[in-house]
Input
Amino acid sequence: MEPEEIKGERINVTGYPGDKVASQSNTYEMWGMEGESASIDQEKGQINYLIDTAAGQSGSGVWFQEGEDYYVCGIHTTGNKFVNTATLLTRAMYKQIYAWVRQATFKNFFLRLGDTKELKFEHQEINAECISLLTKHNLDDLRILFLTKEKIGNEEAKILARNASWNNLFWLELSDNNIGSEGAKVLARNASWINLSSLHLSGNNIGAEGAKVLAQNTSWIKLSKPLLSDNSIGTEGAKELARNTSWINLSALFLINNNIGAEGAKELAKNTSWTELSSLYLQQSNVDAKGVKVLKQNKTWKKDIEMRI
Output
């Protein structure tokens, strides 16, 4: 609802007027007062009304009802002889309050963490500040971290990559975010996650450039299951991955929906470092029968390798 639409609504001020129990110490009563808003001053960000209030009600919620729904539209701040006033709760202010609540929630959450080994977040709207709190917290025993569908972008990836204490991390789930090629670049510079085994980056649009920098990382030698599906890697990205020589423990490679094509399959088949590779997933990647034939001619990978095209 727009601010001007509040004018004429029957609004309520619900709080604790001090004059109701002034003679009784440490006693409070919640009261609700109702009336119409007199005016909306968008420039000052105020709602004005003639509803009766008393000292002690500052900070009270100002709200109205439509059908079965309730809407908080302001925060009571001032009472005088002529008109009482509330700070208008705008969209921008709501977002700021929401951010403060999120930050306080995360700070409280981290204070309660002990020697946590597993953290899973999904649809939690984790921002850069939350990621920063996470990386600074003492989580030396952390082994599994899920940050799925969190809108994590380049900035958040940069903060994550700076972490130097998660030496026991073996599963990092970052699927369905907004990391992109730049985010992949900063992640690939991390040299601390020496026990990383599963890296899930599906649905992050890292492109060929992102695939290239990830393949050049020489610290993640225990990496066995990188999920790189839905990333627009293409033929060039497949070529860059094929040049990788450090993933000596690679057992499964997920490249679904990446438009690799027959040429990309041909480049992958040239790899001679993935001696433990037993599963290769290339569905919806435009790999035809010719590409499959070339892949099966690789003599380095496991003989009974499972290929899904």
Q: What stands out?
A: The radius of gyration is 28 Å.
